[in-house]
Specification:
Length: 172
C-alpha cells in the first residue's frame, strides 16, 4: 500500500466532475487500499478520488471512532437514489480544506447504491453522521465542496481564514 498526496483547495481537480469507473478489478482494489491508507494517515473519515488527483467516481469512508474496530466502506460509482425530506445540520471538515469547519444542512438520511470492494452491487440506507459523510464524499465526485453549501459571505470568511493559516505556516 502507498500513501497518496492529498490535493487541497483550490486545485482544479476538486472542481471537476469525476468519471464513472468500468468495474472493480485488482488495479482498482489496489487504489481503494491506497485511498483508505491515505485517509487513515490523515485522520479523515472519508476520502474521494478527486482529492488524490484521480477524477474517478470512487470513495472510501470509515466513521468508526478512535479506539473502535475499523469499519471501512468502499464505494465505486456511488449514486444517491433517495433523499429524506427531513434535513439536519452538522459540522463538516474536509482534508482538502485543512483546519476549517463549518455547519452544513443536508437531507438527514439517504439511500445509495454502489459497487463494493468485490465489485458487487450494494444498497445502503445511511443515517446520522454516515449520511453526512456519504453526501459530503459524493459531492466531491461532482466537483462540489462543503463550502459550496454555505452562504457566500461565510464561504469568503472560511477561505480568508485558510489563506491566513497557510501564510502563517509558510512564515513558520
Ligand atoms: Ni471532503
Amino acid at each position: 500500500m502507498a500513501k497518496l498526496k492529498v490535493y487541497e483547495y483550490p486545485h482544479p481537480v476538486l472542481k471537476q466532475k469525476a468519471e464513472k469507473v468500468g468495474g472493480v478489478d485488482d488495479e482498482m482494489r489496489k487504489f481503494l487500499d491506497d485511498m483508505l491508507e491515505t485517509m487513515y494517515a490523515e485522520n479523515g473519515c472519508g476520502l474521494a478520488a478527486p482529492q488524490v488527483g484521480v477524477s474517478k467516481r470512487v470513495v472510501v469512508i470509515d466513521i468508526a471512532h478512535e479506539g473502535e474496530e475499523p469499519n471501512p466502506l468502499y464505494m465505486v460509482n456511488p449514486e444517491i437514489i433517495w433523499r429524506s425530506e427531513e434535513k439536519e445540520v452538522c459540522e463538516e471538515g474536509c482534508l482538502s480544506l485543512p483546519t476549517l469547519r463549518a455547519e452544513v444542512e443536508r437531507p438527514a438520511s439517504v439511500r445509495i447504491k454502489y459497487l463494493d470492494y468485490n465489485g458487487d452491487e450494494c444498497e445502503l440506507c445511511a443515517e446520522d453522521f454516515l449520511a453526512v459523510a456519504v453526501q459530503h464524499e459524493l459531492d466531491h465526485l461532482d466537483g462540489v465542496l462543503y463550502i459550496d453549501h454555505v452562504s457566500r459571505l461565510k464561504r469568503q470568511m472560511l477561505i480568508k481564514k485558510l489563506n491566513k493559516i497557510r501564510s502563517e505556516a509558510k512564515r513558520g
